[in-house]
Each structure stands twice: as C-alpha cells, then as structure tokens.
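Posting for a labmate who doesn't have an account.
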Amino acid sequence: MAFTEEKLVVDLAPACDPPHLLLTSTAPAPNARLHRTLAAGDQVRALAAVTIGGSDGCSPLPGLDVLFSDLRSVPVAVSPLPNAGGVRGGQPSYAAQQGSVDFHFDYGFAFCLHQSDAFTKRGFGSTCIGSTCKGKVLVYSRGLDPFVWDRKRNRGGAIICPGGGGHLLCLRCLDAMYAGGQPFVSTTTGGTAIDRGDLFRKYEAFPASKELKEAHSGQPAAEGGHQFFVQRRDLAACPYCKESRTSKRGRPERKRLSESGPTPKTLGSVAILGELKWSAVPPTIIAAGFFLLPQLDVNYRLLDISLRDGRPVNVPRLVQVDHLGNYKCMCGQRACREHEVGFLRDTSFLDDWWQSASKEVEPPFGSFSGGKSFAREVTGPGLGRVLPLDRDGHLGVPLIGLNAEAWLGPQLRAFVTCEGADDSPAVCVLAGRSAFCSRCSEQERCPHIQRVLSITGEGDGVQIGPAPEATRTDVQRGATNSDRRAERSALRASGQRKLQVCNDPVCRKPDTKVPCTHGSTLEEWECLPAAALDMGHSHKVIDTVMSRGGQQVTSLCERWGDEGVRLRDEVNHFCAPRPVELLSPCGRPWQLERRLGTLTMAGARYAISTYRRVCTIAPGREAACCSVAYDGQEDGIFNFSGTTLISHGLLLRNHFAAALGASHSLNFDANDMATRSLEGPDAPRLDDRVFDAAMQAFNELAARPRIQHVCGRPDCAHLYTSEVQAAEAEAERAGCPLKPERTEGSTSNLATYAFSRDKVVTFDGTFFPNSSAMRDSSEAILHSICEPDRGAPHVAGGFTPLSIGGVRPSNVPLEGIDCPWKFRNGLSELKPAVRAAAFRWCNFRKAPAQGSNTPLSAEEFVAMRQGLPANPYAALLHALLIPRYSWVFGHIVTLKLLRHLLLEGPVDNLGLAYLTNDGPMLAAILRLHPSGVVQAGPRQYAFPATLRPLLRDIYATNLLCFEPSANRPSASGLSPLAALLDATEHLWALERERLRSLGNSGDPGMVYAEQRGFALKGAANALLFELEVREPQCYGSDGFLREASATYRERVGAVSIYDFHPLLYGRPQFTDWEDASGRGKKGSEERLAQHCGAPNPRSSKGRAGTFIACCQDRAPLGYHWLKGGESVSDLGTVLITRFPFKTLRGLTIVEDAACNAQEWFLNRVPQLAKYMLFLVDRFHSGPISCAPAGAAKRYATHTCSPTLFIDSYPQHDHTITTASEGINSGLKRSAASLQQITSIRRLMSRVTTILDTLFERSKYAVFQGKNSVESSPLRELIRASR
C-alpha cells in the first residue's frame, strides 16, 4: 500500500511544497494507487540510497554497507500494473511467467548517473538493446515525467549498465545474457564474473526509528517501512553497448535546432527579462538597491555560468541603483559602461521575479548604500536550489526541491560579499573544493573568499584557484574497457583530451585498409564539442593560409580549377583525418558518414562529397557527441558548417589585403564577389548573416594576441629583456653561466661604455585621423602610460647646467659650490666673423651664412681662435651652450678621454677612434693637433695649451650634466671639479716652469712641485673616475624606481603590448617639470616643444595613435596606445619603467625628437642619460629635410647640434634609422581598415596583427612560440653570442 509520510516529507522537502506520495513496497501490486495519483497530476517519490562519491563516482561498492544517512527521496519510475497482458492473446508478461513479485530497479543509482533528468526525456534510452529486445520495442513510455514502465512489456524491472553514460537492460535480456554465458564482470576484482543473484540487494528503511536492515526477495513491507533495491556499482559495460550498431549507420542524423528567430534585444524588455529567468543562478536581490544579474551577450541572450578547466566563466554580475534611481553595472570590466541595465526598471512592477537572498531587504528598489559589510549566499544548501558538479567536474542541471535535498555530492555555491565602505562588492564562487573571486586577482589573499570560507567552515580543504587534476585511486585495478572509456570521457569533458590523427590525403581515404605509417607526421588535435560549427574537432593552434600574410593570402584551392576539384572529389579528398585510436573519446567506435556539400571559390561553385568520422550513436541519443571533419586548412579552405566549404580567397582576398597591410590592393569587393559566385537558379544564397559570421570568424582566427616573430640577427637578440633573463637563468641552472655582455665589462675598459651598432632601438608614433575607435565609450576610462603611479615617489630637482635658463633645482641650495662651474652666463660680445665661425663650429643652424655642416678646417679654426677676446674659452663655451638648446659633446668615453688629455697627456689612434664614436666634434678638432712628428710607433694627439682651459670647461660642463653633485664638496673636503681645477692649474704651472728653467730639474723646489702635482693628479683621478662610472642612484632600495602598484599595472596593461619587456617599475612624478598627469608643467622652464623650430602639435581629437618600439630591422618590440598627443614623455616612460639598467647600458635610441628626449632625461634622471646615446634619424636630420614638399612644416629640419645627428657617428654608418618610419608606412596603408574599427581593443589587436605580419616577411623574422622554453630560437642566439 502506498501512503503519505507527513513526518518524512517535513524532513526532506521545504514546507511550501505539497505532500509527496512515497513508495512503500517493491511489488507492483501495492502500487496500483500510484497510477491514479500520477494521472491526477500529483507527485510520486521513491525512498532510495543515494551515496555520491567513491572511485567510480557512485557508491556503495560490494562490501560497503548502506547507512540510513544515505537515504534520500528521489523521483520515481512508476512500475507497471501487476500481471499485465501482452499485445496478442492476453499472454502474461515475462515478470508474471517468472513468478516474480518484486520490481527490481535502483532509483538511487539512476539519480547518480543523470541527476535530475534521469527520469525525463533527456535521461536513459527508452529501448532495451539486449539480445531479446534488440532495441526494437519500448520498455517504458516517456510521455509523462516521471516515466511509466510499459504495461505491455513488463520485464520485472531493469538493470542499469554504466557503459556509454548509462542505459537500461531489462531483466528478460539480462537472464538471456547470463544463459548465453556472458555475465557481468566486476571492475574492482580484475574482471571476476558476478552471479545473477548478487546484482541486487533489497533493503527496508524505517524513518520513524531511523533503522535500516536488509530484506529478502518477495518479502512484503512491514508497517512503517519503505523497501528499495540497491544495484552493484562496480559493473563493467555489458557486451551489447560495446558492439558497434551497424544498423544505425545509414540512419539520417537528427540535428539539434539552433537558436533562431528574433533576438531578445529586438523583442524588448519583456523578452530580456524572460531570458534571464532561464539562468542557473537566478536574478537575486542582495540588498536594497543591490542585485545579482546573469550575464547577457550583445543580443541579450543568456550567457549562463559554467566551468572551464575548473574555473567558473560567465559569473553573474552586480548591479546597483544609485542616488538618482539609475541602474548601474558594477562588473568591473573595461567595457562596463556599455552594459545597459535600464530594462530592470520594469521588474519593480513584476511580482516574484527577483529571488531574495535576505528577508531584510526594504525597500528593494531604493538606492544602494555600500557602507555595511555582508556575505550572502545565492545558491546552495538550504535555499531550495543546488547546482551539482558531476563526476567529470562539470556543472549539471540545477536541482530544485527534493531533488536538491537528495544531492550529496559536490556543488557550486555563489556568494556576494562586501568588506565595508572602502571595498567594492565581489561575487565569490565555491566550485566543489575550489574558490574563486570576481574582484581580486591575487585570490590567495582575497578578503572576500576568506570571509566566505570562515562562514561556511570549509577553509581547510578548499583550494584557491583551479582545482587540481583528478588522481587515481590507490587501488590498482585491471585496465578494462569500461575504465578506459570512463577515463576518455573525463578527459574529453575537462578539455584535456588530445587526438592524434593522420591528415595525409592518401591515408585518410574512406576505403583505406592498410595501417598508418605516418607516425612522424601525426597531428595533435583538440577534442571540442560536436556543436561547434557541426565539426567537433579542430587544430589546437590555428595556422591558416591567411594568417601567414603576403602573397599567400590568395587561396591555394583557387589554382585547382574545374578539373582539379573533380579529381579530388573522385578520390574522396574532402574526408576527415584518420584517428590513431580505434575508439572515440567517449569510448565508442568511429564510423564514417558521407554528406553532400558545396565548395565555393571566387569564380565558381562546385558540388562535392564530404566525409566525417563520428562516434557510434548511443541508444536513446539523438546525435553523435564526437566528430572529426575535414577542415581544409592545408588547402586554404574554410569548412564553415561541415557541408559548406568556402575558399580563403573568396572571403579574405580584398578584406585582409587592407587589414594586414598587404602591398597590393584589388579592385573588387569580397562581399560582391561572394554574392556573384552564389547566384544561380538552384543555388541557395549565402545570406548576409552567414557571410558576416564567416568574416567575423576569420577576423578572430587572423587576429594575433601577441607579437609572434622576433628578429633573428644576433645584434638584436639581447634587446628582448625577458628572453635574455630566461637564457641566463637556464644557463645558471645548467651550471654553465653565460659570459657577461660587452657593457658589463671592466670599468677601466673604454669598450664597456662605447656605443656601437649592436644595441639600437628606434621609437616613433603614428596617428590615424578620423578614427571610429575614438568614439569607443571605454576611451574615456583609459589612462596614459605617462600618468605617474600613485604609489611611486615624487622626485624633485633633476637640475643640470644645460637646463633652460640655468634654473636652480628645488632641492639644491645655492651655497656649497667650491668651483667656478655652476650656472650659465650670457653670450659674450664677439665680432660678426668670429661669431659666425664659432656658431659654425657648434653647428647652430640658425647662424647667418652657415655654409655647410662640416667641421672647420685647420686654418678656419685657427682664425676663429685668434679672433676670440682675452678670455677665449669662456666666450666659446657659452656660445656652445646658448639658452634653449641643451646638448652635450659626449658621454662616459668622452669624459674618460678628456680627463686623460687634461691630467695624463696625449692619446693614441685607438683613443682618437673611441673619441670619434662618442664625441665626434671634439675628435674632429683633436685630429688637427698631433703632438709631434713621430718616426716610429703610434701617432699621439693632444690639445694645445691655449685650448686646454676650454677643454676643461667642456669636461666640467659635461660632467655636471650627468652628475649634478660634481661641484659639491665630498668627504675629503673638495668637490671632484675643484680637485680637477687644482690639479690642472698646478700641472700647467709646473709645465710652464719647466720650459722657463731648462736644466734645473734637480732643484728641490721642482721635485717637491712634481711630487705635489702627482698627488693632486691622483686625487682628482680617483674622485672623477668614481663619478664618471657611477651607476644611477634611481635603482636599488633607496632609489625612486620601485615596483609598480597593482592599479598602475592594470592601467598600463590595458593600453600596452610589450610582451618581451614586462613592467618593472612604477612611473614616478618629477614635480619640478611635470603636473599630476605626467605632462610638462606650464610654470617650468622646460620647453621641449620649442626645440629646433618644431611646429606645434596638432589636436589629437578624433585621432587614434600608437607609439611603437622596434629594432633597426623593423622587428616590433612593442607598442602602446597614445592617450592624447605624442610626447617624449612616452619614450622616457617606456625606457625607465620597462627596460632594466642592463639593457639601457650602451643603448642607442633613435627618434625624430631625440634632442627633446635627451633633455627630458637630463632634467629628470641625468645619471642614467650618460649611459644612453640619443640620435635623430636620417629622415629628420641633415641640412635638407627628406620629407615631401607638402610636409615641410611637419618634418622641419632640426637646428640642434650635429652631435645628435646619426651621420656624425662612424659606427652607425650602416645603421638603419628609419625602421619606425617603415612600420608607420605599413600602418598607413591599412588606415582605411583601421579607421572603421569602433573598438579600441579590436584596434590594438589589429595593429598587433599588422606589425607582426609586416615583419614576418623579413629575412630576419623568426617565429617565437608562446610556450617556447628550451627550444626558443631567441635564447639559442643569446647563448651562442655569449
């Protein structure tokens, strides 16, 4: 008899649910009332053992007892009426013939395998595939939920075979299988056969006393007892589900209907609200004016929460009501402003639309006040809604009511937490034993997750981040087919399954019978769901023809012609690859399927036959779950839908010629070509929606998220910071450290500080006018990389004597200078001829009758020197350092050689060569003054006595440019420059005394003077040498370059693509020169924009700009988005925040405004500027501009010193300085395509693709994979060069 157990219902179901009729006996006779109850629309439940866990996903195993705590009320499959007759003659059923009084079925195991849909149309198959039924007759009907066993085919119950995801085998076929000598075997005992009587155990439960005991077959239920069967859980797959169903190969496959019709966006707010109600995590009120809303796509279709590699995706977002009553999205994404949530206003008129997480929400639609801290659960135990995680770690169908109460396994729980007024609310998700937060990047320190774990009490066993891979049990079992099938299914579901396939055209033919011998050319494909374009499997790394750029944009299949397509179709060329394994990932055999398809090219359309390999369709399933299809990548064909094949040339010939910056342009449009090629009396049209989807798919395939090609020339290898560090670390681990770089040599070696062609980086910016990307709403929230890091220090001072107008730094007092070099004075009065000659020597380009840029000849220089007034070196020095022009003669090499000329004596040819490469102006004059005629040995060079004071002033001024403390007293009492002054005055006086008193060198006074000169020279050398080679003070624990804050990293990461140069430091603010935005301060004396007569920068309104760094071979090193106009501050910020000091040592920087960039560094980090050489490229330097006539104002000839022109340096005779201009030219050819992109993110992705494609055609281009470790070609170059 069936009855209503009121007490049990109260324990198992919410109070609001109606009473449920519970099974009390396993015999069909007492359950006649259940059919009347079911016909009346009432619910029927079964008390069953539901224990979810164990090695195979469900327990108990043999020898493991069922406990009363394992009992739950689950949906029931109603047994047929007793002794139901057959179709003909009223013959008794099989159960009646066997005299069975029990109906054998394990409801709990069915719930384990299929959760809530075990007894619905999506559950088990309705036919038995045993030897008697043969899958031809129904054993139950699925017209109602729960299903009812068929009265005409009463088999006395069924056993659940776990093979193929679970199917039913009636007891009649089960007995026939055992009679035929094919018993079930155990997966835990190494394949031991299981007796027929050991397949089921019968139990009886007494809820009143919480007693559970084993019952005998046929024994009626006692009063207050509930009977149920428990099936063994260690059964291997039956022999029927392992055999291929050849009879179903010819059956046409039923396709799953895709979403079609108008979108919710077009239907209005009512359709959008109805779409949201389908979410697994329903819309929920968290607090007054604070809501949790599921994700929607651009068409307002639901993006429901799911798990990908153990990590939740499409996590619901938070929405709040502000003080004005407007709904505002709080998801924190960059495009958050694009999320329109105004349709939620209509929910205030709908009753019971929102689910509430708290009963204390009044009023629900008032403004949100975020001052309180809270943690509220949205989905989980006690809320009547459970999101179960199945055995493969995937999210199952939501369970509600008693189904949720019956679930004992892992589940997904969602929380909304807030830590107070200073914290932004976050959505935290517990996926089994893993925790995730939508707000915090460092989740191991996330306060939101810690709060959730403290509330739930699960802190000890929960892992922060992705869950670890599932491990095998300690029990080593025999590898049966069922075990292998379960392992493949789990790997496929987790996205870790890879397929080894042979894609050889001969081997993949449908009629091929010979074994595959292409083991060395097998391809690894990733297993994807069959619903993805109806193809199922595709390459892990897509390397299509159009992504390689150049002339190969034209499709390969265009060259086949009519005959080529016909011949390939005859040999079944359009066939799926041949998998190496005989079984598909789901464990079923592969079978071949033929379909009629079409191949559309630029000029014709052909009917072809396509073949794909699918898994054998499981009983009760509607479609195959595994599929391998011909993808056509090796032939330049896009397999759009499994039967519609489109050539790359048709889709992309014109589109990507513009998008990728190809050197040619065609005079037809791809869309028109597609329309013409598909016209015909019986040809179906490829409509705009399908064509646009195909174009979008190709755009995504061609977009490169990172720069994939690097420069293969050894001179450029050490410019890639991350690869240099990785190569050095690998060498250290291997016990063979690399040799130091040239710039890391001895401090006494001139080669350590010399600038050469092996370290050159060029920079330049480019703009695209009238760009649609500037209308992107996210542009307003983007930040320039020049904006200082709020966590970085504020730096004052940075004064050098070459600053405009001689401005005193804010942190340096006037007193304390013990030498004459401090500030500039005005230009002394000179005669016009002498003035012109002096200006020509310093190459001040605005001088009248300047002649040429060549240095003065010996006669001209002597005439100029003789025409100077009594204090010649001071007047000439100030002529060289006139206001508004700041440049220096040399760097560390020049300082070392000048100090040698002042204190030690002449230099040889080698020293003159080093001086030529570092201070070409001084070297040109020094070459005119050999020290004398030398018959043997190298020639010596030295400045005459009349020029040595001028040389000393030049040295002192240069040293002060890089080391502002050179004129401040040191610990010894004198400043380095004062020591230089004392030493040179003494040595020069001693030299004059020797000339006057020849023959009296033994005088005691002369001996003492020589000893004192030696001591003064040694002291000056020691102090000056320390300053010359001193490394910048900005690094280290006391420096102002420190690790960037998380906020600055996020801001810079949104607008920067520097894959090989990670962000090292936060950008400080230089308060004397800049405002809070990092741009030039109006009140400062720094006038970078007024250098060299450069025109005023144009307005950046409507112009999208990028600032690009590359090597001299046009290999892009990275770029960033220009927020506002282009400035040398962009160049300086990139160098000081991304390039380590090791890379900056000896680096030559080429830029069209190098004069401004050099002053930018001299005013801010002068000690770092002495290690870098700033040069103007050949396009913008020289006496005549190389720019077109119409761009004369834009590319004005520089009027700064020739020491900033690259042609002044012999070592850079063959250096390519227009690499950035060449890249800009390639981008300009793509301007028409770039101007139409409306998203900044997509624009940057397209720029990355263009830069990589342009360099890809270079002979120096080397492909650098994302996951390259030991096999990186760049690291091999670094190791070989060192």
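Reply:
Got it, the structure tokens are right above this. The radius of gyration is 41 Å.
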